[in-house]
Amino acid sequence: MILRTIFVCLALLVLTTLCLGEQHCVNLLCAFEGERPCDMGQYYTVSMWTNEAACHSAGTIYYSSDPPGALYDFPAESFFDIFFEVQTFRSHVLPGEFMPGDCFFLVANVLFENPDLPDLTCRDNVCVGADGRLYLAGACPPADIRLPSIMNIGDVFCFKVCHDVYWIPLGCTLPGPPVFRILEGCLMQHPNCYDPECLVPDPNCYVWDKIFCNGIWYLRFEYSCGYRQPVCYCVIFEDQLPVELLSFTATPGHRIVTLYWSTATENNNSKFEIERRISGDATFAYVGETPGAGASAVRHDYSHIDRNLLNGVTYEYRLVAVDANGNRDVQEPVITATPLAPTTVVTEYALLQNYPNPFNSGTVIQFKLPETSNTRLTVFDVTGREIAVLAAGLIPQGEHAVFFNGNDLPSGLYIYKLEAGSYSTVMKMMLLK
How far apart are CA 124 and CA 65, in angstroms? Predict the structure, then answer.
């Protein structure tokens, strides 16, 4: 998950950053990614986000070249919505019909279903090298770039970059996620982060992420405005967490609360303790525990049912990660839930929007049945291939909730369908990892 939320509108078009027409609330950056330590492919990458709650739209990214001839693994890629957190899409690109020495533009056209949002376009100029690989045209010479060969916890460094994507290996000793702070410009009173002559960049021109592959953590840093004009960022490697908690949610029921959480990485994590208090109380109390994954750099999903609660009372929950030595690390956030007895009789069929959405691996889907029905709840990918059957058979009247685990699935748009008697409907959900 890319760790940026930005509050200005922009769209990258050839070499500049601008807003198309009137101000709009979609932010777009694109970059050609020529080298990736995680694989040998070359990619055209599109990143989008928004800061406006009302700025929502599904849409499609269309990849092409100008003139035509380049080949993409995914010439078109649909997205479910635009979110505050950055979403990144990438398609593997090959020279196709272009020969060594040829230059052309990689193009990404973003078309929205919402007619109030203008279509956006990115273009990056690339050339085919003698080795048949693509290279960014007009890139800064290596002498204009300043990057560390490796970063360790506590390091502070002034990155000097141009329009490109950079991968910096991290000297991490734990599987937990690195924690960074990034400042525009190198104006800190720090010997490794002070370069007052280097340009301070537009704060809307970069995205970054922490990526674990082949047993190594990397900082992926993308600057996507301008080509030959270097700019500077102060990058601070602050810490590394023992557990990376992706999500923590609660679903209340009749005298019960079901807790769901997911982790991306864990370090020496023996177990999770679940603590609860009544809202307004000062202290938490232990109510249960679930074994952890030990040392793991892959996603794990967990759940716990807290029973025999009082309806109408609001409870607060938190998780505590406990390592093999008994050290306790209280996780954030604290979440709330209020169990309630059924107060109304369900009178019609309904399939509700999953929560959370978008989700990291695990999400809850709720549906309502006005009568006992032969029911089937199924998940499909965008090609129509059946992914999972979440419920099947004779299900009684009432409100129901099921947990969908997308741990082994790639990021993307998924469809879930409810069939009950003669009733049938579908909803969309977005898996983001």
Answer: 9
Distance CA 139, CA 141 (A): 6
For 350-431, CATH number out of 3.40.50.800, 2.60.40.3080, 1.50.10.20, 3.30.460.10 equals: 2.60.40.3080
Closest CA to 7 of 87, 84, 118: 84
| Confidence check: pLDDT of 26 > 50 | yes
Task: State the Cα–Cα distance between residues 144 and 376, nearest whole angstrom.
Answer: 60
CA 53 to mean position of chain CA atoms? 18
Q: Which of 165, 146, 199 is nearest to 29 (CA)?
A: 165
H or E element at residue 250 = strand 243-252
Name the residue with tokens 């291939």. 385
Determine the pLDDT at residue 428.
Answer: 93
> Which CATH class, in words, describes the domain spanning 243-337?
mainly beta
Q: Which two structure tokens, joined as six digits, stand for 158? A: 């002034």
Q: How far apart are CA 153 and CA 174, in angstroms?
A: 11
Query: What is residue 173's predicted lDDT score, i.e. its pLDDT?
Result: 65
> Residue holding tokens 């950056």?
29
The rounded radius of gyration (Å) of the Cα atoms in the chain is 24
> Residue ranges per domain, the chain?
10-136, 142-240, 243-337, 350-431
> How confident is the model at residue 1, as a pLDDT?
32
Task: Give per-residue pLDDT as tens, 148-176.
Answer: 999 999 999 999 999 899 999 999 766 66
- The answer regarding whether domain 10-136 maps to CATH 2.40.30.260 reads no
| 3 state DSSP class of 142 | helix
